[in-house]
Amino acid sequence: MVFRNSDLPDLFHHTDKIAISRQREAVGAIRHQLLLLVAGAALAALPSSWTLGDTFRLPSALSALAYAGVLLLSFRSSRRRAKSHWQLNRSAAEFIKSMCWRYAVHGAPFDSNSTDADALFTTRLEEGLRELTKVGWEDPRTGTEGGPVAGELITTPMRRLRAKAFSVRKETYVRDRLIEQRNWYHRRKEISRRATLLWSASIGLLTMLALFLALLRTLSLAGSVDLAGLLSASAAACLAWSEIRRHQPLIAAHSLVEEDLAAMHTAMETTVSDVEWPSAVYETERIVSPQHTDWLVRHRS
């Protein structure tokens, strides 16, 4: 049997869609702010002799507009709170996904001994979502963020997988959840590693060029255009972007999660029995939770 994201309830898909949209908005706003700061520095470095008429300096005016754009974007971001909504909706989507998997494959607390797993699933899911609403998450079923969400919390594929034998549930979970997550963390680790090399090299190159031009200006060998300041601003923007994206700590965090998932994969294939299965699924879902990754990032920063 195959179990995919498309088999999850509508509430997951709606929340996941909002998280992706708000992530793009938050990251895009920061990117545009940094680009405008660099553009402002570039325009400010142009020769003051570039004027319109006697007094109006066009590069300075454009530089001022770039800095005003930064302030405008900052104000808009503070009003929209895209980053907060992104993180809350991502947490909600991953929580829903994790609970659905635990229900479908008899993970704790929805094991085979549960007398009414459907009612327990609904209760635990609603309790977790209520906790998220206390810190700012907007439930799309009651708020105005996208309108009402149709569909049951327990889908037909979830019920079908839950009704399967232990061997089928284990094979489906290991293949479609554990291995898929392990591969995802491996891909993200490699992406972060390449990004770290790229931005580190960019920062080093820009800083060395700024140092070289500063030395030339010290010896009065450079022109009137202050390229050293522009290069310095560009290096600072690269550094800020790298820190915002958290590439370096994510490499360590994703490596640890990948190692833990590899150990769980080995255990599930060799030693985990039907009796130990619910707790093994619970532990796997804890490992892949965003909260666990964030904890690792904070301690590896």
Task: Please specify the SSE layout and strand pairing.
Blueprint: H1 10-44, H2 58-80, H3 82-104, H4 117-134, H5 156-162, H6 166-218, H7 227-245, H8 247-270, H9 277-287, H10 290-300
Name some characteristics of this structure.
mainly alpha; single chain; 10 helices; 301 residues
Please characterize this protein's 3D structure:
The chain is elongated and about 85 Å long. The longest helix has 53 residues, at 166-218. It is mainly α. The protein starts with 9 loop residues before the first helix and ends with a helix. α6 runs antiparallel to α7 (227-245). It is built from 10 helices and no strands.
Secondary-structure element order, as H and E?
A: HHHHHHHHHH
Distance between the termini: 41 Å
The whole-angstrom Rg is 26 Å
Instruction: Please indicate the percent range of residues in DSSP E strands (runs of 2 or more).
Output: under 5%
Counted by DSSP, the helix tally is: 10
Structural class: mainly alpha
Shape: elongated
Task: Please identify the oligomeric state.
Answer: single chain
Low-pLDDT windows of residues: none
Counting DSSP E segments of at least 2 residues, the number of strands comes to 0
**Would you tell me the overall average pLDDT?**
90
Short description:
The protein is an all-alpha fold and 301 residues long. It is 74% helix and 0% strand. It has helices spanning 10-44, 58-80, 82-104, 117-134, 156-162, 166-218, 227-245, 247-270, 277-287, 290-300.
